Amino acid sequence: MRGLVVPDATEDFTADPVELFFDLAFVFAFSQIVGLLLYDPTWNTVGEATLIFLLLWLPWSQFAWSANAVPGNSRTVRLLFLVATAASVPMAASVTTAFDQSGALFAIPLAIIFLTALAMMVVGLDSDSDVYRSSLRYGAPNLVGMAIIVTGGFLEGDARTIAWVLGIAIFVYATIRAGGSEWILRAGHFAERHALIIIVALGEVIVALGNSVAIPLRENGGFPASSVVALVAAGVFAGLLWWAYFDRVQPAFEHRTEETPPLERGKFARDVYTYAHAPIVAGIILAAVAMEEMALHPSDPLPAAFRAMGAAGLVLYFGGVGMGVFRSFGAFARERFVAVIAIGLLMLLGSDIDGVILLVSIDAILFVTLVLEHLRIEGPPGGSGDASVHDHRVDNAGIVDDTAQ
């Protein structure tokens, strides 16, 4: 191996391959949540899945902040990521039983991952800097929060739930308290990391489709034409969600982060990324549950529980995007708001509609919505859209000003 020429590590703040490797454990964890909801679609399970997702968001989000503050391609940082990845496997494996016998197996690795990320930030910063002192002030309450979460893993019933909710509340308090502090925030890396976790969540829709294919093939040796249509429609659905974020919103968020003054950038990133992206990712996971059920039983009406999860998933997804857009630009994405209402009514009134027809209808609504939004902002090919809207779009990387609407 001596013949291999390895360049010196530099401050490269694109996502390092070890960060992508770390995300793979969350593919596993998200698939576990989908399985939990698919096989026990009750309000109690939805509540537990919501709490589990929020707990998973804590260590992932902390690593996004920590790897943004220190060079991600140093061997020390990579080693810490690998330690966290190893710890994430038992954490993800115990998702479905976290409220039963595996509370400690879920909570202890989660705390290890979070504290590893926190240590990376603190150790990697200059101890004489204001950012270092900000990290210490932010980390102190989170140490208490993680201790409570681990303790909750050894409790039972409502006591475990209360402990975990309290741990999440302490994290939120710590982020609010830290909002006025000075932070290192590199817009490109931060936008890329949150884009990648959305890709991971959208990958869960593809995994759900894979299950829809594998089960009928294994049991029946094939599947009917309605299943093929449902699979294609579910793939189109995932593509439409991708387009709804990556075509206009993702580059606009990154651009606005770069424009934000350094002293305000930490608070801005907290609101637009740490807060607003949590419902975006959660919404994709909920929608994946409904997609899998529709693809598995395309010729049957979709049960009420799955219709509710599908509608709620889209509300969370577009609600999170809308929250970030409003925080960034004061803009209101009106076509998307109308689309969510239309899909919600379709889900509410569609108790007798076959799953495949419901899915194709949702795709049609989302497609028309994105086309109308594009035409209003940019106009038809060769033409011009609303001039005032277009001017603001150019200035702010694609997002519309509320006053121009």
Secondary-structure map with pairings?
Layout: H1 17-39, H2 43-69, H3 75-93, H4 103-124, H5 130-154, H6 158-177, H7 187-220, H8 225-246, H9 249-259, H10 262-275, H11 277-296, H12 304-329, H13 334-349, H14 355-378, H15 387-395
Helix pairs in contact: 1-2, 1-3, 1-7, 1-11, 2-4, 2-6, 3-4, 4-5, 5-6, 7-8, 7-9, 7-11, 8-11, 8-14, 9-12, 10-12, 11-12, 11-14, 12-13, 13-14
Task: Describe what you observe in this structure.
The protein is mainly α. The chain has 2 domains: 15-184, no CATH class; 186-405, I/LWEQ domain (Up-down Bundle). The chain contains 15 helices and no strands. It has helices spanning 17-39, 43-69, 75-93, 103-124, 130-154, 158-177, 187-220, 225-246, 249-259, 262-275, 277-296, 304-329, 334-349, 355-378, 387-395. Helix 3 (75-93) runs antiparallel to helix 4 (103-124). The longest helix is centred in the middle third of the chain and has 34 residues, at 187-220. The model is unreliable at 387-405 (pLDDT under 50).
CATH topology group of the largest domain: I/LWEQ domain
In terms of DSSP E residues, the strand content is under 5%
Radius of gyration: 22 Å
User: How can the largest sheet be summarized?
Assistant: none
Low-confidence stretches: 387-405
State the helix count: 15
CATH architecture of the largest domain: Up-down Bundle
CATH class of the largest domain: Mainly Alpha
